[in-house]
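A common beginner's mistake is to predict each chain separately and then try to dock the pieces by hand. The better habit, illustrated here, is to supply every component at once so that their relative placement is modeled jointly.
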Amino acid sequence: MDFDQMLETWRAQNTAPPHDVNRDALRQALQSEEARVLREVRLRRRGLWFCWIFGSGMAVWAGFWIAITITNGWDAIYAITSAVSVGLFALAAGAFWVDRGRKPERNFGNTLQEEARRNLALVDDQLSVNRRWIIAMLGMGCLMVGVGLFSWTTNSSQDISEASSGAGWFWFTVVFVVLIGWASFKAREEMREAKPKLELRQQRLRELLATLEARE
Amino acid sequence: MLGAERNRVFESWIDEHKAILFKVARVYGATHSDREDLFQEIALQVWHSVQAYRGDCAATTWIYRVALNTALAWRRKERKHGQGRQDIEAATGLLIAPSVRDPRLDWIYERIAELDEANRSLALLMLDGFSYREMSQILGLGESNVGMKINRIKAALAAQLAKEEAKENNDGL
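With all components supplied together, the output reads:
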């Protein structure tokens, strides 16, 4: 066998592959994968809903605590920390609400214009991935700090000792905030590299779409 | 892209380009069960990638890129976790074995298997007639680097072919 014969033997596989695929087994594997992806999406969506409801509920509860503090004439510091907690919980709820709302548009038809619109929607979605991720992390951070602060407020105002858990909670929050900051920084770096290409593609798609619409 | 459309594109890719998946699975999988496992992994990654495909390159190039990246990641994972797996445990029945084997094709696969992992990818692409530019795009290497490596692979294959021919001649005498 010389080199050309070797190439010929090799390329013959393209027209007559030596193996065949068991379509049923492949379909089964695909269905399992689809189900797994769907489960992940549902889990994420439920997680976001839970965080949104929890953040909103805590904001209401902290607001109620301000009213109790004022009514009972407790120290002003508890009203202030409760107010800060309300702000943090409201910010967290807002962040989760914004994060769950955005999805790329998928229901387009098959014309060239619709293909361009579909691609544009996907590029827009890719451009917003990093922003959405940072928003979700911001929401999580606000929730953590808010829970810590509000927990301190309720315990201190009721003279419940926090000696055993206070320091642990503080360091947990610090580590969590540092991790979020670091992960957000890395995500931002990656996005900074990908952004010029995506924006160029977005610009071209918009121009293409404008040209196609002008022809009509 | 809707789920049904994605599945339609995937089915048509499998119909037209399944040979790529077989080749990559055979080059990187040592046993039949490894190949089945890798073939399934590549097929799933190709299915995932359908939505990301924008038509910027040929479908063949895209599928090769996905398949080779998956195979390299799979090898890393296997080295870490998959030692000592038994054939019978992993068999999925995904690949239907050929009734007749081509010994020349087996010989080519054996020679490719002797190369290191990165060079196996290059050998696959070279044999399938990709240009240096396409290979560099698929593998993320510089064109000159690709050229240099391909020349070495070709020289190694030519030497093996010459050795094989000499052996055949000696056997014939």
